[in-house]
Design goal:
By secondary structure, the chain is of the alpha/beta class. About 35% of the residues lie in helices and about 20% in strands.
Length: about 250
């Protein structure tokens, strides 16, 4: 039986939406929605929030959850998760096998999405990291730079991630537009290897964690989710998601 932990990285200092994790959605902070959904997944042994902000830490503790304080110098969520994992493993004197990173701005997450994301890794020991992927159904979302687009090879491994609109639709509309959903399981040892890899030019240019994986020659297996979801990057996104969750 694999030991699987979920880590939710969250910080108040988002450049696009300061204070985002504590923004209210139907009278609950967004980070609370994510924490409750992830904690409900039957495949997860433990869920923690990794943060550098006392406000988030105290909120998670107040609802009976567990949080770990990390450095405030991380540019990448994956690096924050790696630090939190090592802190927790040292405290518990035990190791986990799979670390599922769930971004704190995915409040439409449901427990089944966590299970979807880890299934390929449990079935195929060669897979080091997976990401959920979802269809893009509107042109506005396709051209939104906050929405991370993905193109895959024929084996469903990511070829490239971009904030730009990829692939081109100028010659054909037969290719389904896809977006990254930030539910990202890592094999434990690969997460620690990732954080020791040097940052890469495309990772920095796009501000996307997974490009570090691709640029260093590793594969990212994309997993189609059957659930509709929207991340929150702006106050306008927050209103949209709040309306959808009410339904």
């Amino acid at each position: 039986m694999k030991r699987i932990i979920a880590i939710i990285p969250a910080r108040m200092g988002s450049s696009r939406f300061p204070g985002k994790p504590m923004a209210l959605i139907n009278n609950m902070p967004m980070i609370g929605h994510v924490y409750e959904a992830v904690s409900a997944c039957k495949d997860i042994e433990k869920t923690i929030v990794a943060t550098c902000d006392l406000e988030i830490f105290e909120y998670i503790e107040s609802i009976g959850g567990q949080a770990v304080m990390t450095k405030n110098t991380h540019d990448r969520a994956s690096d924050r998760c790696a630090e939190a994992l090592l802190i927790l493993e040292k405290e518990e004197s035990r190791k986990y096998d799979i670390v599922v990173m769930v971004q704190g701005d995915e409040p439409m997450t449901v427990p089944e999405m966590i299970s979807e994301s880890i299934t390929p890794m449990l079935d195929d020991s060669s897979i080091l990291v997976t990401n959920l992927i979802s269809d893009i159904d509107s042109y506005d979302e396709f051209i939104d730079k906050n929405c991370i687009k993905v193109v895959c090879d024929l084996n469903q491994n990511a070829v490239y991630f971009s904030r730009e609109a990829i692939p081109t639709l100028s010659k054909s509309n037969s290719v389904q537009m896809k977006k990254q959903v930030c539910i990202i399981p890592f094999k434990r040892d690969f997460l620690l290897e990732y954080t020791n890899l040097s940052e890469t030019p495309l990772e920095i240019a796009e501000s996307i964690d997974m490009l570090r994986v691709i640029e260093h020659g590793y594969k990212v297996r994309m997993v189609q989710t059957s659930y509709k979801t929207f991340a929150v990057d702006t106050p306008e996104d927050l209103k949209k998601v709040e309306s959808l969750l009410k339904k």
